[in-house]
Amino acid sequence: MGKGIGHHQIGDSFEGFVLIKDATKGTASNGKPFLTLVLRDATGEIEAKLWDVTGEDEALFVQEQIIRITGEINQFRGKPQMRINSIRLAQATDGIQVADLLEKAPVEREELMTRLTEIIFEMQNPTIQRIVRAIIKKYQEPLSLYPAATRNHHEYVSGLAHHIVSMLKIARELCDLYPQVNKDLLYAGIILHDIGKLKELSGVVSTTYTLQGKLLGHIPMMVEEIGHIARELEVDGEEVLILQHLVLSHHGKAEWGSPTPPLVREAELLHLIDLIDAKMNMLNRALEKVKPGEFTERLYAMDNRSFYKPTFE
Amino acid sequence: MGKGIGHHQIGDSFEGFVLIKDATKGTASNGKPFLTLVLRDATGEIEAKLWDVTGEDEALFVQEQIIRITGEINQFRGKPQMRINSIRLAQATDGIQVADLLEKAPVEREELMTRLTEIIFEMQNPTIQRIVRAIIKKYQEPLSLYPAATRNHHEYVSGLAHHIVSMLKIARELCDLYPQVNKDLLYAGIILHDIGKLKELSGVVSTTYTLQGKLLGHIPMMVEEIGHIARELEVDGEEVLILQHLVLSHHGKAEWGSPTPPLVREAELLHLIDLIDAKMNMLNRALEKVKPGEFTERLYAMDNRSFYKPTFE
Amino acid sequence: MGKGIGHHQIGDSFEGFVLIKDATKGTASNGKPFLTLVLRDATGEIEAKLWDVTGEDEALFVQEQIIRITGEINQFRGKPQMRINSIRLAQATDGIQVADLLEKAPVEREELMTRLTEIIFEMQNPTIQRIVRAIIKKYQEPLSLYPAATRNHHEYVSGLAHHIVSMLKIARELCDLYPQVNKDLLYAGIILHDIGKLKELSGVVSTTYTLQGKLLGHIPMMVEEIGHIARELEVDGEEVLILQHLVLSHHGKAEWGSPTPPLVREAELLHLIDLIDAKMNMLNRALEKVKPGEFTERLYAMDNRSFYKPTFE
Amino acid sequence: MGKGIGHHQIGDSFEGFVLIKDATKGTASNGKPFLTLVLRDATGEIEAKLWDVTGEDEALFVQEQIIRITGEINQFRGKPQMRINSIRLAQATDGIQVADLLEKAPVEREELMTRLTEIIFEMQNPTIQRIVRAIIKKYQEPLSLYPAATRNHHEYVSGLAHHIVSMLKIARELCDLYPQVNKDLLYAGIILHDIGKLKELSGVVSTTYTLQGKLLGHIPMMVEEIGHIARELEVDGEEVLILQHLVLSHHGKAEWGSPTPPLVREAELLHLIDLIDAKMNMLNRALEKVKPGEFTERLYAMDNRSFYKPTFE
Amino acid sequence: MGKGIGHHQIGDSFEGFVLIKDATKGTASNGKPFLTLVLRDATGEIEAKLWDVTGEDEALFVQEQIIRITGEINQFRGKPQMRINSIRLAQATDGIQVADLLEKAPVEREELMTRLTEIIFEMQNPTIQRIVRAIIKKYQEPLSLYPAATRNHHEYVSGLAHHIVSMLKIARELCDLYPQVNKDLLYAGIILHDIGKLKELSGVVSTTYTLQGKLLGHIPMMVEEIGHIARELEVDGEEVLILQHLVLSHHGKAEWGSPTPPLVREAELLHLIDLIDAKMNMLNRALEKVKPGEFTERLYAMDNRSFYKPTFE
Amino acid sequence: MGKGIGHHQIGDSFEGFVLIKDATKGTASNGKPFLTLVLRDATGEIEAKLWDVTGEDEALFVQEQIIRITGEINQFRGKPQMRINSIRLAQATDGIQVADLLEKAPVEREELMTRLTEIIFEMQNPTIQRIVRAIIKKYQEPLSLYPAATRNHHEYVSGLAHHIVSMLKIARELCDLYPQVNKDLLYAGIILHDIGKLKELSGVVSTTYTLQGKLLGHIPMMVEEIGHIARELEVDGEEVLILQHLVLSHHGKAEWGSPTPPLVREAELLHLIDLIDAKMNMLNRALEKVKPGEFTERLYAMDNRSFYKPTFE
User: Fold this and answer.
1) Most buried residue, A104, C151, D155, E244, by most Cβ within 10 Å?
2) Do E178 and A306 touch (CB under 8 A)?
3) How far apart are CA F195 and CA F138, in angstroms?
4) HD domain spans which residues (chains A, B, C, D, E, F) (predicted)?
């Protein structure tokens, strides 16, 4: 397939398969219609202009279609923009699939799910274990596929599972360093904290927010879900309440979406581990794109900072 | 029973029955133990000192006991404080009960509950009506008795029901003025918005927060409860989601405990009506205690303002 | 006149009379001048491009002119934009007037003014009544015509009077619910609170801020005005001070333009009623434009929220 | 009269005349009444306890009385407190007057007023000059006596006039450095900016806030006053508006009491000069009380900072 | 030595050796002097009253003296307070030393210093290693003894070294998980980040802030120190700048004392690891003092939260 | 050279020499490349479009080149933009130099430096004098040339020296008014406070931030520099610490880049004088560009305010 869209520079030509993420019609100053497409593959995305389009073009080149294009990459208002020279829909014989054009976690989804299952198997508190097992069983399929967010961090296929498994690794070490921590509780909190996103987000391709996601948000939805599962399993006791508290408080502050702040040790730790893994994911991905001696683009979710990559090792 | 504790001035003598709200032991500079009691009746509360107490006194004069006392009201560090001259436990023959010493809503609890029932009966959307009816049925007893808060506003017996019924009156008029408003939805939101407080608060006398109340708060608890009831009733549909949203968003802002702000017209209106009735309750009760031309004490929940009562009518 | 400008969709053609709200000249990439016009009628407004204009065009098509145009509505940078095909000034024989192209309050201005007069007539406190009557008499003409703001809420002909009359309706009901409220004072506060806007805003068409409005603002101007009127009427006494306080404090907080927060019951209530009516006006108008199941555009003055219109009734 | 109250240390005895600033009755743990007096003279103030008081004592030793006392200065909860040994009312023969016990500006009031008059005489813009002259004439007496505030800065007899005259000195130099500044306007702004305090504060001894001061504040009152004077003088024109703007905006920000921020060069400068002179007055007075190498007490109005006095010169 | 001061309850008697942390003289209402002492040993601290003291007592019982006392623990204004029955200075024959009465890190200082040395030995970047080695050599003695803060976290003997070593453990694991991280740089940042506290704090017993500490703070002092050492070692290059940046930015935000926020990956990680270890130290120590089912005291440095200790394991 | 670029209006033609501040390539909708140039001379700057450029054009017309152009000034998206008609590089025979195209301080650099030297000569504290003299000697050349900032205030050649000298004038007067101020300390603080900018900024033409400037900022760099100089001069004592404190705290608040706020009188005064001179510089330059009766453009660094220029004198 050649080099991906994210590895091209201004001035390059591009030829290959991409996914249409978004398509909007406009009218040029000469009165002719054109399409503004947002194109993506596993390496990145770019805005592209298709000039002088026909009604047929409009009908063909729509969101979530795979297309084959050639074009040149120019600069427009300080950002790269592709001028499309040729375009056609992908055909069965091209042998290309949506999954080939999406970015994926650096670890295989099967491996991530196996790791999760092992951790649950290790748990010693039966109440916590039963609740976690029931929820993971219910959400197994989407959990293995969903991103952790629509943008900012772990925004790729299996991103949520990847985020959970990374957090569990950090947790394991912190439990060694601080033996007072309740390992089962912390692990359970990590596994459950963002499961509500499976209801909040619309899916894996062109991810948006669901109506539930907009009106309730993943945190209250997951608190409720734990309550439902506990009722179904007919388990009761402080574990249920504390698990709900961990999920509820994991954003750390009311302003950040947790109406109650962490009030249990493992809740505080869950919040901090979430912060580290999300920030390191953003940071590492941004620094990968620049050379030593350069600054990254501004990272919105990190207070709009631009980070420097030192020249020494 | 004479004038209540809240109607006494510095320099007055007091004689009558009161409830012990709080009792702590201290040691005076002469080395002798004393008790600091917080005493209340339906009209107010006061701190009182009982000097030179015996071990027996300590055992007798404990929280939630009814006692008969005589004493004088002095000033201590700018606040009234009673010096107790005589004290004894209330006896069966005194014919005095806890309920006699608690402040109550200005409307009878039966009347409040009847009003609620009528409103539910009027609802036309069957889904909304079924959910509200089921919840009210489940919580009927505590709802008729609980305060709306531990302090600040409607902090008296049947305070929550009184708050709801006042809000419903305001809502009725606003629905007339703004006919676009969905009346069933707004009424349902008003009735349900604070029902979670019945789990958040410990009871009617010496009200404190429950563990659930501290770790989850009444808002997420009530969102979950609506979910449970909807499952039990096997109702589904947007009404459930929107009702949960109304409860979730009724504090108006993340900083005030609503992780999602109001995003539905009736949610915004619910928030505003809640604000008006809570503030007017605080304000009216504070202004009742002062004369024209005076300022009230500072009202913590109203940005610590002190309000002026004009001299004209 | 056909369907108004606000009822057109992208892709529609438009033909009809509109008012030029704003006109700016630009130069296209082909070196030829063009005009960017903002056009409005009673139903909404739209940006329009008139390409290849002559010097004569520039002189003709200026702010506040009524024109007859035909054109098509396209999308430009995510917003509707009209491409003008033909344009001419309205002529006397077209029988169209500025007032026909401005949005008006849903209640007639005469009716609004009558309602105001009745309320003043009902007042029992003679000082309050005299002051209010004198001010209303002085500002009768503009009060019956001005909008309540340049944008956000009640931004239409007679908007201020409409806002006042709606607030008075809410006030009447709240006075019933909370009989401690001084009705004359609250009514007077509502009637006077925004009269300063008649000096702050430039007029009814193409409303902007006056120099006074920018350097003082309507609140201090109205406090001063009450002082002047009181001197002219030779009335004195606490009523004058309290009325000034109501006007001064009606934005609720220093950050929102009230250097003193409400410190009188009726001042607090005035602030809350103002909030409700302004918000409901914005909200109702925004929701009117969307279908059930959709979200409104973002509402800047409501914390930039986008509101959902439920699908049930 | 010996050393003043502010120059005594813990452990010292005191003998002399003081003014009672505040008197409150309490009851000691032995059941006997006592008086807590706040005593002041020109050098400072101290809390004092008078034990075992009679009803006659209570009647005699009240606010604003001059008394002669002897006592010792102890430490109580980290602060100095006087234990009174003997106390009596001052008598005519003692030849002591209230003015002797109040702190005064370091410059004579006559000199301050002369300086003010000279500055007004220098003004060249007749409108500005007439307004300033009329206001100063009206408020001459209190202006020569009032403090600039109840505490924090220039809180002494003639403090306001002292503050104005110091600000005028700074202004003169800044006008030399920045010749674009309109000197008449800046001088007028400085002279008028705090005249509203003469209505906001109750007087020179035991200064408190008036009802007007609490409900309107000195800024809106002074804006109104300028409007009244302009009407009386029948002057009109932009000068009146700009002077009102200078007064209105001189606190610099909405949060600090100026609903409109400075939008004219001289308004910005007025705000900055006010800041400098107020801060330097606080700072100099606090540093005077400590030795080189020490820190001052915390200064509430300077973000609660405690300042260091270096050991070198 | 019996049970320490921190393990006593209200009502207990105490007998043993303690250190005087603070001593202030007061005068009782009977006119007699008394001493308020703050007493501490390795387990905690308590306020104590010594009544009717002589001048000799005052001279003997001063800050940093070791004394032997007997007394009873009462409650005063909601806090424990000891009433001293007998008191004498410790004597040589008592065999008690200051170090016995101070809390220490749970790991021996020698072990902590050995661990530090090993880590420095492992570093591969020679510039970083030379700088770190030089600084550690210079500050070896105080580094092995100082607390990490005067209160909140690691406020015990060798607290700073303990904090550093714990952070290094976390860092090692995170470097495994995120191999892009520059391990030498992160380790060096951790070791150096708080060395400035050795100049900011006065010592190990009765720790206060030095003048330098108050006027500059440990962060700018350490940035300067790295500059000095680099000059002395005659090393240059980006490593010096980046190490200074890590120290400068480690509080994460301007409001928290870092004028520049982290702009290098390892700087961000250093900030997060510091946060985790400081918070876990506070939290673990607070939870140790309560039983399952209870809440801790409010933790000021953790947003004044009170944490819950669950009842299950 | 004719009228400068900053004195042209929309519709004017321009002919003259300018400096290229920035050049970016784009592709027009017709597929041809164009250059967007930012052009400046001593009077201002403008964006310009050069259409249909060749590869040679791209290579010639780059940053910091002097060019001679003719063109017309149009409006584009509300801002002036030049359409270039002819363009060529300046030649030796044109006799034009970079310095001719940069804005300069209104006072000659030699005069500014002389003034600085005189002030240092007047100092009486030998330690302060030696430190200041050594630093000024070291940085003499850039200090005489650098701007005080990249934009907002004193952003012209010799801007920093101009800012310092203006501040010294204000300081002299304030020292007369408040004789308690340590004049040497205040003068030294003013001279040194922004010297760190000589390392923070890249130079005089096309000024940007250096890596050091981004990662440390001028304040910590200057604190360190004072430490180095003091070591080199082998001076010690409180003066060094206090000078470092003055530099460190001169932004006034942590949020504004001073991790320690001013805690010494002269530090507070330095901060206030800096504020005045920076604001007056911005304000005077903005007001110069508008006529009486107009408002300035919005000033970002002054809370985005737009200032009014009164019509009277």
Assistant:
1) E244
2) no
3) 11
4) 163-279
For the segment D50-79, what is each residue's pLDDT rounded down to a tens digit? 888 888 888 889 888 899 999 888 877 778
* Chain mean position to CA A143: 12
Over residues B71-109, the pLDDT tens digits come to: 888 877 778 888 898 999 999 898 888 878 888 999 999
- Burial bucket for residue B173 (CB in 10 Å: 0-12, 13-18, 19+): middle
- Per-residue pLDDT reduced to its tens digit, E234-260: 998 899 999 999 999 999 999 999 999
Give the residue among E111, E128, E109, E110 at the shortest CA–CA distance from E120: E128
List the single residue in B with minimal CA-CA distance to A225. Answer: B224
C160: CB partners within 8 A, 6+ apart? C143, C146, C147, C148, C154, C194, C197, C198
Query: What is the C-alpha separation between F219 and B65, in angstroms, rounded?
Result: 64
Give residue for tokens 């027996």. Answer: B56
CB E24 within 8 A of CB E31: no
A15 is written with which tokens? 């030829």
Establish if E76 touches chain B: CB-CB under 8 angstroms: yes
Confirm if A158 and A204 have CB atoms less than 8 A apart.
no
Can you spell out the DSSP letters for chain C? Answer: --S-GGG--TT-EEEEEEEEEEEEEEE-TTS-EEEEEEEEETTEEEEEEE-S--HHHHHHS-TT-EEEEEEEEEEETTEEEEEEEEEEE--GGG---GGGGS-B-SS-HHHHHHHHHHHHHH---HHHHHHHHHHHHHHHHHHHH--S-SSSSS-SBTHHHHHHHHHHHHHHHHHHHSTTS-HHHHHHHHHHTTTTHHHHB--SSS--B-HHHHHT-HHHHHHHHHHHHHHHHT--SHHHHHHHHHHHHTT-SGGGT-SS---BHHHHHHHHHHHHHHHHHHHHHHHHTS-TT-BPPPBGGGTTB--B--S--
Residue B29 CA from chain centroid, whole number: 38
Taking only residues 232 to 251 of chain E, the set having a beta carbon closer than 8 angstroms to any beta carbon of chain A reads 237-239, 242
Separation in Å, CA of B75 to nearest CA in chain D: 5
Of E78, E79, E8, E69, nearest in space to E35 by CA: E69
Please give the distance of CA D245 from its chain centroid, rounded to a whole number.
Answer: 24
- The secondary structure of residue B299, as a DSSP letter, is B
ipTM of this predicted complex? 0.88
Chain B residues in contact with A244 by the CB 8 A cut-off are 215-216, 220
- Residue F69 phi/psi, 5-degree rounding, is -135, 160
A79: closest chain F residue by CA: F26
> In terms of residues, how long is chain F?
313
A215 contacts C75? CB cut-off 8 A: no
Give the contacts of B127 (CB within 8 A, at least 6 positions apart).
B235, B237, B239, B240, C312
Q: Could you give the domains of chain B?
A: 5-101 (2.40.50.140), 109-285 (1.10.3210)
Residue for token digits 């990254």? A296
Residue A55 sits at the chain C interface (C-beta within 8 Å): no
pLDDT tens digits for A60-78? 898 888 999 998 888 777 7
Does A187 or F78 have the greater pLDDT score? A187
Q: Which helix (H) or strand (E) holds D70?
A: strand D66-76
Q: Kindly state whether B298 is in contact with chain D, defined as any CB-CB distance less than 8 angstroms.
A: no
